[in-house]
Queue: 2 jobs
Job 1
Amino acid sequence: MRPTLTWPAETLLQAQGVRIVFFDVDGVLTDGGLYFSAEGETLKRFHTLDGHGIKLLAQAGIIPAVISGRDSAPLRLRLAALGVTHLRLGTEDKLPAAQALLGETGLTWSQAAAMGDDWPDLPVMARVAFACAPPKAHAEAKATAQYITTAEAGAGAARELCDLLLVANGQYDRLLQTTMGQAPAEKGAP
């Protein structure tokens, strides 16, 4: 099976070498809508495509990290189910949170990507090697991004970024072939 996804060469070159990805939650991993229960608990809807993309990143050795202004038990449960252990929740000042995660992982800004949708995400997006935004992000986030997804937030946008990074870093084909129960094709083979 041959991969069907493609991106412009310049986009893939910008995304090469990424080893950690900072994801926002509201407006990136979710559609940004907030649901409140009668007890005042905040509920969010996550898309399984995005979750599987995050798992694939980890399988490829790219660290998924989450930095969000909100914190909730359902969010922590979802991130735990995805195996995300690098997170900072309940912080509006995302730059120091990202810097701390880089310090913990021994990585640098030149090895980082970020996906955000609004002003709190801009300081991180402006420093990473590759910034991404969903199509309904705030104008400033889209202007800062090198790539704007075609899929909407909470409906596959994060998966689109994950796939792009996997292709850029030479891991997509290997993971796809493994999923299909096949050995990855040799380079240069038809």
Job 2
Amino acid sequence: MKKFLATLLLSACALSGLAHAGMIDDAVKSGTLRVGMDPTYMPFEMTNKRGEIIGFEVDLLKAMAKSMGVKLELVSTSYDGIIPALLTNKFDMIGSGMTLTQERNLRLNFSEPFIVVGQTLLVRKELADKIKSYKDLNDAQYRITSKIGTTGEMVAKKLIAKAQYHGFDNEQEAVMDVVNGKADAFIYDAPYNVVAVNKAGAGKLVYLDEPFTYEPLAFGLKKGDYDSLNWINNFLNQIHHDGTYERIHAKWFKKTEWLKEME
């Protein structure tokens, strides 16, 4: 019996020695946290006129890397291929304004949400009297658009399925499709639309600002990396209580100085 228990103990020790330490431990050892993102989502991640990636989520990640004592490396990746890129080790985690959906959760683990947003509408000004909510767009006479691979596209196809849909690889092209009268409405997250209506709307868009979905945004990791999730969740809890989160949030959502960097 003692021999049997000793064998079990040795086996357990061997297995524990083979266990993967996790993304956070690997980043600390390498000195770099690699994060995949598509930098086209104002004000979360975007490229300024100097070619630098800036934004709300970028600043959260900078604070995260600083807490780990490592440098931050942002890996630009198209949004529709960002999950496969994570799973093939192109970077360590996803930080790209990703909505935590049940479908995505089957493929990834997610941290606790760092913000909650919802889908809203940018509508052609000529339709302001006709379109009061997403339900009014659910008709074959209307053409709607969003960015491919996002929850905007998912919501368009699920809740506004009767309308004609054409997606684009980036938000700007989709918004301009409405500005130019080729589409009737753009479906996207509220924080982006509140900026886009003034920055790209050219006075031709109406912003319907009442969110019609619930969308928690979170960081995405490979499945099974619970130690890293524990660290990230504790980090998010810390910055929510020490003033860091409030300061970063105010910079991007309550102030407008950053818009000058995008001109």
